[in-house]
Queue: 4 jobs
Job 1
Amino acid sequence: MNYFEHIVYYLSLMIFLLLALQAIYLFVFSVASHLIPAKKYPEVNHLGSFVIYIPSYKEDAVIVETAAAALAIDYPVDKRKIIVIADSLLPETLQKLYSLDIQVVVVSFEKSTKAKALNEALKQTEGEFDYALVLDADNVCAKDCLFRMNDVLSTGFKVVQGQRVAKNTNTTMALLDAVSEGINNQIFRKGHRALGLSCAIIGSGMALQYALFKEIMPEITAVGGFDKEMELRLIRKKVLFGYAEKALIYDEKTSQQGAFENQRRRWLSAQFHYMRQYLLEGFSQLFRGNIDFFDKVMQTLLLPRILLLGIVPVAFLLSLIPGPGLAPVYWLAALGITYCAILISVPAKYINKQLFKAIISLPMAFISMFKLFFKLKGANKTFIHTPHGDTK
């Protein structure tokens, strides 16, 4: 091979290794989630007390309904308190909230963030509780959600993530978002717990010991991705996260292309921010035996799955062109592992005609995600709001 052919070969080898390692990572946890039985948590008699925080930034369309749904959760009234954090809500919305049996904390910031809202609510929370549960303004908990959370928290976990499931699949975009959430639950929650690692927390539907929540929140200054900062800070301290698979939290999925792109732009920006901040420390913690922290940092290196699903088959097709790159068999193997890891993680309830119709739109979703890489500048310095309530 000449000089140019050497460059092409080693470049293709490097790209292959990066993509193949991601595929293997997803495959291992996906298979583990199916082969290793999930731990069963028996119902317990002792009921801990919960304070439920619901930050609401310009969520007039859904927050009253969400607060009412929280009041309807089946749990002793004297063991749960609901606090809505009202940021930039309309006066008529505030009046409706004041009429409910909840606490309303009105906040106003020059630059709003979820972390600021939660910290202010903590200052205005009276009394002591066993646990704090954080919800998004569109979340609706299953009736027995707190009971199931309590079962897992009672075993000694200081942090527990409930299972977020889709509230709506009314559009192609919402369905793809719902499927993505289901895959995340299978790989990054159920699969990780199956292998003894912490499950991923999301930022809503997560419960923490109240004392730990009060301790960690003042450290959180993130504009976007406050849950990732919390996750890394807690796992650095070797706090293990549990997964309450039976504690269901219904989450509204993005129905429109613009909202989808805004949401993903926020997530990508936070991912790259924490990758830069914690990558070196990830290897340092690995040598100290903190595999959990290293694993969470490695997750910041993963490409969005929609990009992985698009890049790998394109790379395979390019490998069929005669040249100095890797043989097609390598790319075919990567393709098989990638698609197998994703397909076996799709929740069975979504495998229907509607899903197959939605798959047709994947190329457009791939293009949208790819374009977002060129729109990340400054995204982690400004709060990017994703509005809710458009599920018709």
Note: The radius of gyration is 22 Å.
Job 2
Amino acid sequence: MTVAVTAASGHLGRLTVHALLDRGVPAADIVAGARSPEKIADLAALGVRVREADYDRPDTLAGAFAGVDRLLLISASEVGIRVPQHTNAVNAAVAAGVSLVAYTSAPYADTTDLPIAPEHKATEEVIRASGVPFTFLRNCWYVENYTANLATALQHGAILGSAGDGKVSAAPRADFAAAAAAVLAGDGHANTVYELGGDQPFTLAELAAEVSRQSGRQVVYRDLPPAEYAGALVAAGLPDGYAQLLAASDVSLKEGRLLVETGDLGRLIGRPTTPLSESVAAGLAGLS
């Protein structure tokens, strides 16, 4: 059985390839696809089959998916054009005779008003309509969305947001990658939807408290009105549209849209999800 992972040069894709190897999947049975294959030469060195796979160029997808049994379609990063990109990939998968398409979606994608959800919902509809068996991996926030910014938090003594006391079921990318690998390498996942989130949801105030505890430096959570938060993000160098999206997503967090309490992630990976304390420790270690 051959399994393929798209966007393998990205964080989640690369981790998923390594998770497959950790599960004992032979490197020769893994296809790693990337827009720029040279960026995953390290995977090729492990014996993984590296192929060009560009969502915008269907001809590359046909070659990338040839002989593939199960495919992990990792959602593209360019908000606004993802549905046609994903459609190209789904069409190529069907043409190649892929027997399962697993797709990284968003929490409760078909019912939520989370700002990023519409493209995920539309992609799920494309996959369902294709007739190919599917698994929807509805990933909650990656905890690295927060821990990657610890240097700024320590510098200013604050984590900014518009999330109020809302809880987010964030977990490390490695946990979500392990879940994807479990689906690709295992059985019984066809036509299944998994709502994936960490076992221990936390507020941003709790995140700030954990950073303070481990760093020995006071960091507080500063809750801002959405417009003010978006303005702070723009001042920090983010494009206005992206800043507005992040602020609106925080409002969704405040309203409970990122609280996932199904336990699906822990069950798929066969262990408790990684606790916030370990993620913060890893983030702080990366600063030294």
Note: The chain has a mean pLDDT of 97.
Job 3
Amino acid sequence: MTDAPWTDRLTGTLEPLLLQEDPRPDISAYADMPYAIFRYPPDAEFPVRQELARLRTRLENGGKRVTALSLAECLDAALKTVGYSWADLAGAEQGVGLEKAAETVHQILSDHVPLDGLVAARIPDDAAPTRDVVFVTRAGALFPFYRTSSLLDQLMGKVLVPAVLFYPGEVEPPAGLRFMGRLDAEHNYRPKIF
């Protein structure tokens, strides 16, 4: 992992890899996990979104088809499926506390409406590794309910095209990531981290 500014890592390191005919070998060391993590400071969320729109245009101009999947939209869909709203979630947090509310949302995303299924269902049926790139965005919406390391493990074998999880967090040496810079670091990420 590098300490280079996120803008340099995005345009100077990740973008050239995604423009390759088949980026999978260079963004991942695992054939059944053709995805990577792009880490950025949590307070850079809005600038990152703006730059991702520009990156998408450049990739599409380079012949790629980019699918952007919002984890915030997936979370919203999961809550609606089980009859919850954001207002219900806020009320639960006030009524039973954040920890219990977080456990409930985690259970929804793990057991009732699995997040990995929501993500996989949003990838085009005709996606091809040499044409398609998937951006998995808005991971901060899962905080503190669901860790992205779980999602990435569950997507193994379900995502067959190059994909990048845009991760708001901090590095904890030697190879840990702290979700939103607040949770204890996870050291078991297998995808490459940019």
Note: Residues 6-70+114-193 form one domain.
Job 4
Amino acid sequence: MSRLALPLAASLLALAGCSHEPAPQTPAPAPTPGEPSAAVMPLEIVETPPVETTLDHPDVQNAAEVWLAMIQGAKRSIDIEHFYISNAPGGKLEPVLAAIEEAAARGVRVRLLADIKFYLRYPESVDRLASHGVLVRKVDLRARDGVQHAKYMVVDDGDAYVGSQNMDYRSLEHIQEIGARVRVPEVVAAYARVFAQDWWIAGGQVAAESPETKPLTIPARFTFGAEEVRILPTASPKDLLPAGVPWELPELLARIDGAERTLDVQVLTYRTKMRNGTPWPDLDDALRRAAKRGVRVRLLVADWSKREASLEGLRELSRVPGISIRFLVIPQSSSGFIPFARVAHAKYMVVDGKSAWIGTSNWEGDYFTVSRNVGLFIDGKAIAGQLARIFEDGFGGTYAEVLDPDRKYEPPRIE
């Protein structure tokens, strides 16, 4: 079924256009008669609802549809950086892969970056694309005990997608996910710069391919209806940031510390220790500070967090007055158990109902300090409000389960 982009899109007669700092830009063109307003939306929230659940929002586009539209509309270039690619016959990823092959066949330059560790686990689809003219490189962060965990795409240097969806058939059908499509030039340029640096590094640091270093004009601003929206692209880790792209962690901490009334967070997993056992209290301390000053803090995590490594920190956090934690439990498919699926994998935050974060990082230290990830910060009530509604549907819905800090949990079957 065809979907609209944002609930308030129907109430807008035309988009007021984009004005980015430091100087105003030419407004975006109004849609032609009969053309969906989504065609000129600078920013759209995108989701994946697991099939056979009630988590779908009819006014929010699905990632499978958005990816396909972006790829089929590409005229010059498609740059894809994903953790891995895993396909299945008849799944929703197959049309996406076919569209990538078709784009390469019609002369679009298609480049793909994948994590080398997970390429070794899932080589088939990457090799398939390479055999159809896609330029492929692998990012190797094993020496630093990290991975290329980002999930984003840049098309024609003017259209980008970032979100929690892996390029996996399960992420388009059997996993709850959140992302965003962005058509704001400054923001797209930042993601393109991350890709350029990673492509350069994965290719053995060829000097001719070194990324640009001219200033990026971010954060960017655009007018959405009567509201000015501010958006900031970010990346991790700190020591692998291209020039001009800010580190994600300080931005997250600043927004948590700036919360005045409410703070709602959904992530796959939450841990207060690095994977090597070193304490990592950065986000935990920030949430505690927020609760102490009277902010209502709610955290929604996947049932994969019923494993002890995550439960340790979650139990202690749930005992803090003002902090509520729930699991989001996705029921198994009627077709039977699916490995690494039927889980809530979204990663986003809403602050005071007026600002938000969407990212690819779980809330564990390694994602911000050793692995490649990207994120997007949005200051604007309309978009934050839409994410807030999605959060409420999860936190207050039938799939939510209150965390009991004194209960012994049985970890769910994952593989």
Note: The longest strand covers residues 227-236.
